[in-house]
Design brief:
This protein has one domain. The chain has four helices and no strands. The protein has helices at 6-27, 33-53, 59-82, 88-106. Helix 1 (6-27) packs antiparallel against helix 2 (33-53). The protein starts with 5 loop residues before the first helix and ends with a helix.
Length: 109
């Protein structure tokens, strides 16, 4: 059975980071049980997968990509779910994060 690419593991870890970041909003200060449970599980899965990806990827690159995915996804969902600002300067800055993630991926074996 072929092994899973560390980049795929890192991507899933980033998706889980989005899950816990957005989940924090729904916990209402950790006063709602199920959103809190989902948020904590997402945190744990995200960190474990990041740790697995770090077995093969450089630490600085993996951490930057992981947080970049989290920032990007959280910003987009903030716009979609919570009416966060979508002004052009903010969107351009989000675009720079995407460019940074792509650049790190392209320059890392």
């Amino acid at each position: 059975m072929p092994s899973v690419s560390p980049w795929i593991i890192l991507f899933i870890a980033g998706i889980c980071e989005i899950g816990w970041a957005v989940g924090l909003k729904y916990t209402e200060g950790f006063t709602r049980l199920w959103p809190t449970i989902g948020t904590v599980v997402s945190m744990i899965v995200s960190i474990v997968l990041l740790g697995l990806a770090l077995r093969s990827l450089p630490m600085g690159t993996a951490y930057a990509v992981w947080t970049g995915i989290g920032i990007l996804g959280t910003a987009v969902l903030g716009i979609m779910l919570f009416n966060d600002s979508a002004d052009p300067i903010r969107l351009a800055c989000i675009g720079l994060i995407v460019a940074g993630i792509a650049g790190l991926k392209l320059t890392t074996a």
